[in-house]
Amino acid sequence: MIEFLIASLLALALDRLVPDRAGLDPFSWYRDWADSIEQRFNTGAREQGWAALLLALLPIAFAILIGRYVLGEIGWLVRFIFDVVVLYFCLNLYRLNSQATELSNALESGRLLDANEHLRQLSGSSSRENETEISSASVKAVFFELNTTTIAPLFWFLFFGPVGAVTQRMCTVLDYMWGRDNEQFQEFGKPIISVNRILGWVPARLTALSFAIVGNFEEAINNWLRRSDAWSDNRDTLQAAGFGAMHLQYATEPEENDKTLDKPASGHVRRALALSWRVMFFWLIIVLLISLGDVLGIFAGW
What we know:
Layout: H1 2-17, H2 26-41, H3 46-74, H4 76-90, H5 93-108, H6 112-123, H7 131-178, H8 190-214, H9 217-227, H10 234-245, H11 267-300
Helix pairs in contact: 1-4, 2-3, 2-7, 3-4, 3-7, 4-7, 5-6, 5-7, 5-11, 6-7, 7-8, 7-10, 7-11, 8-9, 8-10, 8-11, 9-10
């Protein structure tokens, strides 16, 4: 746990200090490769979707596993540096913070066109018509991106090292590319949708629980239980708990909303970002306490 804590802090520090990755974007190359795989395999059948998914994931995961083993034979420090660098490329907390802040500034100054563009950069979707719709979509995007680009990679890194973090991010990219709801991807995209949902199931619920702990606990839990069940889409779980934690109306139909809750507005994007940072600090404290317990246990054994 101590090694995980140090690696995570170093990766997050690099994400803050070198957010542009010095011009390197391995996932840009990966998107091109995934696109070429889809063009060769996509005949509209689910079986081809599974074959394409395995081809898109296994070679890279295996290469990272072998590379880490070889570097570990050279020395522990070399392997540790490799772990930190790989995790650094999988995290995107600073990008989330920067884009959400710009989006919030545009909303608060009434620049809806700019806000829509920032929303598109953050979530891949835009075209909202008014401030309430943009604010609601932006808050949802902040919650989803926090889990997808920070919490989930860290979760899988904890258990499976860099292979886990990279696999989770690759699945996120593939889900965005192949998990579209149209005729071309209707069957082909189902395997990656299922796999990505499984990989995100535990992190999404840990994030949702964190929203409740650091936000409005009662509203978050009630909204979570009312709007989603155990097998609901991860995005629905995050949004339901997050909106409840912020005391916001979540339902798209006006008659379904609790009138005592607030309607999403421009200032709530900044609040969603603040809630996300509280979640990060909460888990930092948890990991720090566990690591401290490990250290005390080591000294107690002497």
